[in-house]
Amino acid sequence: xxxxxxxxxxxxxxGLYNRSEPPIEADRVAxxxxxxxxxxxxxxxxxxxxxxxxQAGGPLFADFDPGAARVDVLSRFVQxxxxxxxxxxxxxxxxxxxTRLAPLEPDPARPGAFxxxxxxxxxxxxxxxxxxxxxxxxxxxxxxxxxxxxxxVIEDDLAARPAGLRATTHYVVLFVNAGPQIPxxxxxxxxxxxxxxxxxxxxxxxxxRQLDAARVAAMRDLVAAEGAxxxxxxxxxxxxxxxxxxxxxxxxxxxxxxxxxxxxxxxFGAAGAIAVDPLRLFDQRSALRVxxxxxxxxxxxxxxxxxxxxxxxxxxxDAEEAAFGADPxxxxxxxxxxxxxxxxxxxxxxxxxxxxxxxxxxxxxxxxLDLDGLTDCDEALLGTDRSLVDSDGDGLPDxxxxxxxxxxxxxxxxxxxxxxxIPNGDEVRDHTDPRSADLxxxxxxxxxxxxxxLGTVREPIAPALRSLPGVEIVExxxxxxxxxxxxxxxxxxxxTWQDPGDDAPxxxxxxxxxxPHRLELPSSSFAPIQGDDGRRVVVxxxxxxxxxxxxxxxxxxxxxxxxxxxxxxRNVRMLTLRPGADTRRGALNNLFLYLSQAPDSRPEKPxxxxxxxxPVRYDxxxxxxxxxxxxxxxxxEFVRPRLDRFEAGF
Length: 650
Hints:
By secondary structure, the protein is α+β, with helices and mostly antiparallel strands. The chain has 14 helices and 21 strands. Residues 1-22 have low confidence and may be disordered.
């Protein structure tokens, strides 16, 4: 498959290979490290919020909140959320019927049913302060229609977003209600079909509660079925009816709605008490878990007799390329944006440029927006999703499934295509051939995995510094205090760190020289015996970029929780490849690590995949660069494809 080495960076735990002391088994290496699932907040995964608010005339406007305090609270929340680039909103008002107030027109720069336009949103929220009269004597507050409108907004957005973006998008409904449904459901609406119900024509709060909870649950299930990251339904209950018994009934009903939607409920008995803080709306992301880690040397294709060189990593072994008129040094021989293997699978010639109909609308057919090694035109021909590295959600990356011959459109990780007793998923993971009973080859060539589930790891983080160029915080000790700390630079003397839990900064730590280097900055309460349980930070300093005058900057220290695994993958073999245009000693074997993730509750769904690339130069029999029997790949070297171009309407 096409390589993404220009975008990914490899790393090792050793320096350059020592030519005078070649390693044992230079053609084999182990990859080791710790890697964690993404934290949705720090990864800035999209959050889509639908505000569904009561506009029914009556006590809400006349007695309970005539000054529209609720609108001010919602406006401040929206303004605060818009400071985070991942948030977008829709606003729905309801009285006798529901009305979508924002966005009014689709935004061509942001496909979907939500907007980040502050003017449009604040105007929509202002309209919520205007009461809307009843449509009739018994049609005054149809919040059922408000829920239907919220569902329609989410449906529109799901339809407009590619699967890769849906997999990281969290949907939130904020339901603001001040009284019962008018008209109220009748008892017969909840009777089993064909059954006779007592008081069938009587209005029923119990039946209304059942129907409303079912609507919210259906909304939640829709989001899950479409592969989105998560859903929450929060309720702001304004106890404005003027009837304490009705308010208590509505409290029970609304609590049931919040429970059905996995959200939170808050009741407000007076306008001055209205707030969004009790709902913790910024604390709502769905946790991700590590699904599967797979390592692959893209230049070594497994076959029935062992590994075969694939110098251009296009999925065709070097020995096969000539039979199809393909160049073993070029992954796309004819330069038409279709990888040679995909052309063969599609019944086309790798040596003759084609423009398939399914690729005609692609702006750049050779682009690879999800960085999985398949071009966008490849994906269109194969039927895979160009926004997902793992289209069928089985934990096996699309490019490996295509090259290894497993089903990339249907989850087949438990199937056994070659009936050798080894499931397809294990064959792809172990880098053996799922199409042939290759047990003899497997004994010597299979990758050996040791993956340890480290559970949920709690770790401190801090944002990048803005006022202190040349200083980067690369590590924060586990004993640090959440809150606002401070870094200070004093020219000619050094740097200090003050932990949020300390009253004074630690000692000035001088710079060792003019070259970039790391410094450990202890806070005032730090003692060496504390180690990582103490309060300190490690910074990387580039002295040439430091400001000429004394400068300090506040640093917000927070803690995040991520699911992590430790791993060691052994017996990853290098092959002698064609040098191609590279005349340096030894050709590159491109090792890729794929970490598939999924929401905690839905591991079967496609989720975001992170990748890391380790290029290894190998010249048989004993030259390898980098050196070392074990190469360390750090967590920060895994990158997740950014799908911003999809957000921009591509």
